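Hi X.,

You mentioned you wanted examples for the new student's onboarding notes, showing what a folding record looks like when two proteins sit in one file. Here is a clean example. The first protein comes first, with its sequence line followed by its structure tokens.
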Amino acid sequence: MRIVLLPFSRLDSKDIRACVILTLFFGFLAGLAGLGLATRLEQANRLKALLESKSCQKCDLDGARLVKANLKQAKLEDATLRGANLREASLQNASLLRAILSEANLTQANLNGANLDEAILNQVNLTKAELTETDFSGAYLGDSIFQEASMVGVNLSEANLTRANLSLANLRDANLGDAILTRANLRAADLRRADLGGADLNNAILSEANLNRATLPKANLTRADLTRVDLQDANLGGADLSVINFTGANLSRAYLGEADLSQSNLSGVNLSAAILARADLSDSNLSGANLTGVNLRRADLSGANLSGANLSDAKFCRTKMPDGSTNNRDCS
């Protein structure tokens, strides 16, 4: 078969333009391939240097594979690790200040004592991670997973945990002051002695959580699920607890002074020896509740359902009763 080559002079302007475009296009693709290869080689060199020196500040490590990597005390301030695989990595006492770890996999990683202040960790998987005394203050952790994580003494003050999954997590003695936990899942979490002062827990799930001796002054728990929650000896002074279902909850000896419990379901709840001075219980359901020894001085019970409630030894003074009358029995 003979191949006939047309002389260049016989090519019209359209043919020439097409040839030029194809030449430029394939040249562009070749350039991209070369750039991609160079980028991969550059990142490989950065990973090698990181593992050797434990330092890579402001580095681009997006998508890096660092499974079981030893990064103890590593300096990764301002680094980007989007989508990185850090499963079972050792990051104890590492500095990840302002780092970006969006969608990273940190399942079972050890970050005990690490500093992630102001870091971005949206949609990060931290299932069963070790986070004892880790600093997440001011960090963004929206939609992240902390299921069954060990978070004793963790600092999450002012962190954003919107829709985060913290179910079954161990958060004993954690600092969650002023944290945003809107729609977060804290089911069956251990929050004993945790500080949740000023936290926003609007629509959060706290069913079966242990908040024994936790502090939640001025916290917003509007429409949160608090069924079967343990709030014994907890401090909920001034908290917004309106329109909440407390079925099966234990609030014995809890401090609820000036708390808003209006329209909440407290039917059958144990409130024995709780302090409800100046609390708003208007239109709440307290039927069958255990109110023995409760301090109801200056509380508002207008419109509340007290049928079957045990009020033995309860203290009344300037208390507004369900029928609109004022009870001053214990004012002296």
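Then the second protein repeats the pattern, sequence line and then tokens:
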Amino acid sequence: MFLSLPLYVFASCIGCFSRPCLVRLAVVMLASLMPCAVVLAQDASLPQAHPDTPLVTDDGTAFDLGGVTLPEVGDVLSRYDFVDVGVNVIADPSHDLAPFVRKVIRQLKTGDEVVRIVHVGDSHVRGHFFPGAVKGHLEQLLGADAVVRDYEVFDYGTPGISEETGRGGAVYQVYGINGATAQRFSDERHIDEIAALSPDLLIVSLGTNESVGAKYSRVQHKNQLDQLMRMLAARCPSTPVLLTTPPGAYRRVRGRYQPNANVGLAAATITGYAEEKGYAWWDLYGVAGGDRACVNWWNNGLMQRDHLHFTKEGYWLMGDLLYSAIVNLIKEYVEHRF
């Protein structure tokens, strides 16, 4: 009846109009028959930075460990008293990381899953010690047979991208660029290379280089981060993202090193953006002491002499912290059956 009524009206009116009027009437009637027609004369719009994908719910069995025991990770952090273990958590209010956690649990129970994590970032990531610690822990937890291991130590000289074997386990790929910012990564070549790795989880660790100058713009930083996230969302629409804050840094003023307050502003921009857009985040800056983060790193002998980069032990501690936060996130999902 919905289709026949307009046609009936159109047919009954043919004798009452001139040819031009009939043409216009025909166009109107055809439009009424095509309520879902595509509007072509319109600029292509950028995808949302965080696609509105509903959380997939189930009966809770996806988060049932089936007798598998997750490791206790508190001991590895106890040797540094400045670390605030209480805030070493991954904030995931939108349960955005649920697909990743489900896959981790399936791998723990079956051993058949390939869990792919891609960690992108600046020189803190490019040095490989920070992500290398997370990589080592996750390979121990989920299995190390998923990648070809042709190196003794995962350090600066080791390729960050590993070849897969096809077997189950953890595939932790590292994509770091010295001096990188969100704007630097907002390049089609980088986005294509990240997307080609098919991550189940994408970790983005930036913010230090956005804050190194004397002046810092929250608006500019947020806009650049948003542009990067939109580009990633366009190429990896179903990949959950974990944003992390920078660890802290000094700035040289009149020949003396002082804590760089801009790092705290950058950290607040990242966590504020994540909360606004529904991304998960991990606040390394807060875990390390916030405004005193760089002082804590330095006083514990974990920073290099440039007061910007860290020792191997410092980066390993960051990796221990992130791994601990990931394990605790999995435990939280298991306990609450999100």
